[in-house]
Amino acid sequence: MVSDKKKALIVVDVQNDFCPGGSLAVADGNSVVAPLNNLMNQFLDRGEPVFKTRDWHPAKTKHFQAYGGTWPVHCVEGTAGAEFHPDLLDDPRITIISKGTNERADGYSGFDGTDLARLLREEEVEQVWVGGLATDYCVKHTVLDALQAGFEVKALADAMRPVNISPDDGAKAIEEMRNAGAEIIGETEL
Fold first, then answer.
1. Residue 180 lies in a domain
2. What is the model's pTM?
3. What CATH number did the domain enclosing 87 receive?
4. pLDDT tens digits, 115-169
5. Is there a catalytic annotation at residue 60?
6. Catalytic: which of 138, 140, 145, 154?
7. Burial of 92 (0-12, 13-18, 19+ CB in 10 A)
């Protein structure tokens, strides 16, 4: 069913450190690139806004194990690991949102400490489509914050992959997003 609601696509953290070979690699993380590129092209062709979020951490942050956090060092601002996957579409019409910039906060969500909600409202967006890395952290938090901010959300099951510290974290995250009000859609529904 075609919706006349103004839509935006949010591509979450498809960065080198989260892809195979990166310091916090998500299994099969690079497999989200092709479906997301396809969607970015579709959105841009229709004149709909596209946002790419990126972790852009300071070198010292409570987010990292060395400073009391959970994670190994990853996506430090200005490093190769923080760059977007080389095959991910780059287009001047795409807005980049840097998050995780506060050394005292995790910054999982694309809305946390950013102007993403304001930018979406300025574009009169009512519905956001969200995919990327990782299902059980930054994608989930971005989806939940989008819902909290009053947007309709479609989470792209075929264009996200989990960290899965515990084997079922990704499945639990999808269920949590669904229970909060997100519609989980697969490739056949695109």
1. yes
2. 0.96
3. 3.40.50.850
4. 999 999 999 999 999 999 999 999 999 999 999 999 999 999 999 999 999 999 9
5. no
6. 138
7. exposed
